[in-house]
């Protein structure tokens, strides 16, 4: 059965691999990508929507109707934006989209690109608290199937990777370490494949998947 998929964050390190996996998948007929920047990809399956206000999706009801699976990859690294903006991007953007989809596609499967260390019941650590709030918001939604993939270390394999001096130093080191210790995380491409596979499968109960469980869907 061909499915209509919604993706956010298709220009990101993991999101662009998710988009490629969806484009290549025989069970996907339509891909709605909501983004701020053009992916510069042209494909018969892809409908790309350039959208500026991620706190208001009310103008997109037609495009957000009859979605089978939403794969949510939108996010920002802690330290790249102020604290209040980090909460807005991590929690409020997701909440706005979830609330709209509850009206337009209440029976969809929602797959969240989460993060290791998220605390749903609160944390004094900004990253853990914001990611935990986003998880809790999703789990309280009406969707029958909700999957959260808590990736640990994500090793970049493509041209897109985190920006900043720390990552410029860290990633070359991990090029040597990660092949020797693959249990510490996953590659960006493998994580993308897992996000797609669990979303399209949609047979297991709603749950949070840690790294060992994520690898079962690669």
Spatially, the strands of the biggest sheet line up as: 3-2-1-4-5-6-9
**How many helical elements?**
6
Roughly how much helix do the residues carry, as a percent range? Answer: 25-40%
Radius of gyration: 16 Å
Helix/strand order = EHEEEHEHEEHEHEH
Unreliable spans: none
What's the number of extended β-strand segments? Answer: 9
Strand content: 15-25%
Largest sheet: 7 strands, parallel
Assembly state of the chains shown: single chain
Rounded mean pLDDT score: 89
Shape, per Cα inertia axes: globular
Q: Span between N and C termini?
A: 21 Å
Helices and strands: which structural class?
alpha/beta
What does this structure look like?
The chain is α/β, with parallel strands linked by helices. It has 6 helices and 9 strands. It has helices spanning 15-24, 83-104, 126-139, 165-177, 188-201, 211-214, and strands at 3-8, 28-35, 46-50, 69-72, 109-113, 145-149, 153-155, 185-187, 207-209. The protein has a 7-stranded parallel sheet, sandwiched between helices. A two-stranded parallel ribbon has the order 7-8. Helix 1 (15-24) crosses helix 5 and helix 2 (83-104) runs parallel beside helix 3 (126-139).
Q: What features would you highlight for this structure?
A:
single chain; 218 residues; two-stranded parallel ribbon; globular
């Amino acid at each position: 059965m061909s499915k209509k998929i919604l993706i956010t964050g298709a220009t990101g390190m993991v999101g662009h691999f998710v988009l490629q996996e969806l484009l290549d998948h025989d069970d996907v007929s339509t891909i709605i990508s909501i983004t701020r920047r053009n992916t510069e990809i042209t494909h018969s399956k892809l409908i790309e929507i350039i959208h500026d206000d991620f706190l208001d999706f009310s103008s997109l009801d037609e495009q957000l109707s009859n979605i089978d699976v939403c794969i949510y990859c939108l996010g920002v690294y802690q330290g790249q934006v102020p604290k209040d903006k980090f909460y807005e991007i991590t929690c409020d953007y997701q909440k706005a989209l979830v609330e709209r989809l509850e009206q337009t596609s209440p029976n969809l499967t929602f797959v969240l690109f989460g993060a290791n260390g998220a605390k749903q019941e609160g944390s004094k650590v900004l990253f853990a608290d914001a990611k935990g709030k986003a998880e809790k918001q999703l789990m309280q939604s009406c969707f029958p199937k909700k999957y959260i993939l808590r990736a640990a270390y994500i090793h970049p394999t493509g041209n897109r990777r985190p920006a900043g001096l720390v990552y410029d130093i860290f990633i070359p080191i991990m090029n040597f370490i990660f092949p020797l210790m693959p249990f510490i995380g996953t590659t960006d491409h493998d994580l993308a494949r897992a996000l797609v596979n669990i979303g399209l499968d949609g047979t297991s109960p709603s749950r949070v998947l840690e790294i060992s469980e994520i690898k079962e869907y690669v």
